[in-house]
Every structure is written in C-alpha cells, then in structure tokens.
Amino acid sequence: MRYKGEGERESCSHTRPVPRHPPHSPLPPITVAARASAIPALLAAAALAPALSQATLASLLRTAPGNAARDEAVKGGACEAALTALKAALPRSDAWAAAASLASALATKHEGAKAAFVGGGLGGLVASALPSATDAGVEAAASALSACARADDARPLTSSAFQHGRALAHDGALPTALLAVLADTARSADAVSAAATACKRILVNDDLVRAFAGLAAWGGEGERSASSAGGGGSTRTPTPGKDGVAATLAALARGSSDPTPAGTRLARAACALARQLAGSDALKPGLVGGGALAAVAALVPRAAAASAHGLVEQALGLVTALALRNPAASEAAVAAGCVPAIVAALTGPVGGGAGAVEVEVEVEVEEDEEDENAHPAPPAASSTTPSTAATKAHQWALRQACAATRNLASRAAPDGPVLAALSSARLTPLLRAARRRYPDACGDVGAAALRDLGVEDYNAA
C-alpha cells in the first residue's frame, strides 16, 4: 500500500494574499524587508509578553509572501522559543496556544523548521498537553503537527514529510492523544477537524494505520502481524476505547449533521482521514460496515450543490479507496446510493462566480421512470473560463468522481448490480464532458472509467 509522502509530494496550498490598504489609507503596504526586520524585536519581546509577541509573529509569518520572513525567524531562534514556551506554559493558557500557533506558522512551507520541531520533541509536548488544552490550543497544536508532516516546501529537491509523520506517530502516544480528541463530543468542531487532519498526516503507513484502529501494537515498523504480512489482514479485535475507525466515523457523522461551515470542515477532514485508513485492506470491512458509504451518499449531493468541492473530493476519494480491489465494497457502495452521488458531483456547479451556470449536453435517454431529462454536464473548457480557486478545486472533485467510477466498475461482474447501476446512470456523456473540461486532471482517469464501463471509443473527446 502506498501512502502520501512515500515518494509523492503533496500539492502546495494556496498562499494567502497580502492584506492591502484601501486607496484612501495613508499607510503604505508592509514590505517583506520590513516584516523580516521586525522579527528580532518580536523575539526579544517574548520574555516580556510571550503570548502577545508570539501571536503577533505567527500572524506576520502567515501573511508574509514567500519565505524571507520565515527564514529570518528560524535563523533568529523562533523554533526554539516556541518549544520553550510550550514546555513552560500551562496547556490551558493563551501562551500555550500562541506558542502552538507560532510553531504551525513556522513549520508551514519550511523544511528546516519542520525538522527542528520534530527533532525538538514537539510530538511529545503536544501529546502530554492535549487532554487539558483549550479548543484553540488543540486546533493550533494539531495544525502544527500537520504542517510538520506536509510536503509543502518547494525549495528542497526532496521532502522529509513521510519521515516526520512516521517519527511523530511511532510510539503511539501522539496518535492516541489525537484519537481522544476525535472521540470527545465536548470539543469544538474545528478542534476535532484539526485533530483528524493531523492523524491523517502522521499515519503514513499500513502499520501505523492498523495500530490506530486497534488492530496492532504501536512501536514502529516491527508490529505487522504474520497474517497481514501474508496479505490476509489482521483479525485482532480493536482495543476498547481505542478504535480509530469508530472515532473517525463518529466525527464524520457529527460533521455530516452540522450545516455550518465548521461542520463542512469537519466532514471533509473526517472523510480524508477515513480515506487514509481505507488504504489498509484490513480496515475496509469496518469502514463499510460502519456506514462510511451511506454517509458519503448523503453528503456529496448537498456538497456538490453548494460547490464544496474539497468535501466532494475527499468523500468520493473515500469511495475510490474502499472500492480498490474490493468488489464487495463496490456492491455496498451501489446499495448505499453512491452512484447518484457521483452523478451529482459530475453535474454540480463550479461556484465562486466561475461557470456557475450549467450547460446541458445532448444525452440519449430512454423515456422511462425517473430519467426524463438529460443530466446537465459541466461546461466545456474555453478561453473565457476564469482560472479561479473554485475551478481548481472543482477539477479535483471531478477527477475523484472519475476515479470512483473506474474503481467501482473495474472488477464488477458483467451481469452484476454494479455495472447495471452505472449503466443506468448514463455516465458516459458526463465523463466525456469532464475530460473535455479538465483534460489534465480528468483525461487519463476519465478514459479509464469509460474503458471499464465497456465504452469502445473511450479515448474519444
């Protein structure tokens, strides 16, 4: 099984724009040089007002373009200052949350800072403090862990994100502490969401994933059972209270039932974590039996209609992972209603002001039961279509819709329920439209989906 970080670089998140003063303001924009020159003073002020100075420095680093300010902070000892503050401050204090926020800002897109925090014991500090930390502290600390295990610094030729994630999760103390946050219904949705994202980032291989689910012992690379090594998976009963699959599904259910933006963020993070867990064949039955596919079937149509493309991508990515080499999961996905969810993703609006009005394409439809009208398809790419963040997110959501279709169909019986459901959904024109609109993202996987659906001219536009 291959996990992200194992020979694969994550795509970088979009840099936040630098705040601009309105035209009537007499104050000029803060330059990169001015931001960098302010860092020594902020570091010196830490002894007088640590929470204030570290929060200010974190804010400066998050808004500064490029890495000049972050480089200056790392050279000035900001990583050591943040670790010292995390050791000295009470977990429930503002100073601890500010230090964790500073660690997150420093580790973002900076390979040197990531190494400094992982080698300096950030994982152990966070693991011991999480039970008594505030929600803000949990969110900031989990974000720092995620930043350390994310391959987002484009300057080095290689990334150590995989090694950092494995080091943070190795002995199980940190994943166990994060698991307790996932299962804590008193925590805020954003705190649980941050914990889920951190778990997804640090559970970088099959051994760690299975240990998180209670199917193996913690301890690094030597805990794989003989049955798992032989491909049969583990039959060990999950440790009571330490079942990461159950906690992940509970977080997904909580996010799915919360219509607020925080609920959407939680649902997306829980789907991403479940998708990571589904990379282990030993965990797929628990995810399917726990209702993951039914949750996806209910989530995706609402998310697609609201142009919540990140949630659509992760939810359908979960279907893709569960259906991989798993015909039983494919049949369960069809029974749960995941095929209409795929249709909803392929026909949903782009949003964000770009291509929000859908263009219908001609589709041959038999005049029967529920399909009296053709499915609307995303408009074809054109020179007038703006390249916005919404369209970039939309293309990855459509790519996952193509991938989910492909995995559902690839091992389906010719006369079985899976191909029958996919055929009745009339996906061919929708997949072709996705390939035309986003040839780079959907060209290859869309053709593979069409091929496995039995379309002869699957490479045709």
SSE class: mainly alpha
The N- to C-terminal Cα distance equals: 33 Å
Query: How many strands appear in the DSSP assignment?
Result: 2
What amount of the residues lies in strands?
A: under 5%
Q: How are strands sequenced across the largest beta sheet?
A: 1-2
Task: Count helical runs.
Answer: 24
Largest sheet: 2 strands, antiparallel
**Amount of helix:** 55-70%
Structural write-up:
The structure is a single chain. This protein is an all-alpha fold and 461 residues long. Among the domains are: 123 residues; 142 residues. Strands 1-2 form a two-stranded antiparallel ribbon. It starts with 31 loop residues before the first helix and ends in a 9-residue tail after the last helix.
Which helices and strands appear, and what pairs or packs with what?
Layout (H helix, E strand, L loop, with lengths): L31 H13 L5 H14 L4 H8 L2 H11 L5 H14 L3 H9 L2 H8 L5 H14 L12 H9 L3 H10 L6 H14 L3 H7 L13 H4 L14 H13 L4 H17 L6 H6 L2 H14 L3 H15 L3 H10 L1 H10 L11 E2 L15 E2 L11 H22 L6 H8 L3 H10 L1 H14 L9
Antiparallel strand pairs: 1-2
Helix pairs in contact: 1-2, 1-3, 2-5, 4-5, 5-8, 7-10, 8-11, 10-11, 11-14, 11-15, 14-15, 14-17, 15-18, 17-18, 17-20, 18-21, 20-21, 21-24, 23-24
List keywords for this structure.
461 residues, mainly alpha, two-stranded antiparallel ribbon, 24 helices, globular
What's this entry about, in short?
With 461 residues, the protein is an all-alpha fold. The chain has helices at 32-44, 50-63, 68-75, 78-88, 94-107, 111-119, 122-129, 135-148, 161-169, 173-182, 189-202, 206-212, 226-229, 244-256, 261-277, 284-289, 292-305, 309-323, 327-336, 338-347, 389-410, 417-424, 428-437, 439-452, and strands spanning 359-360, 376-377.
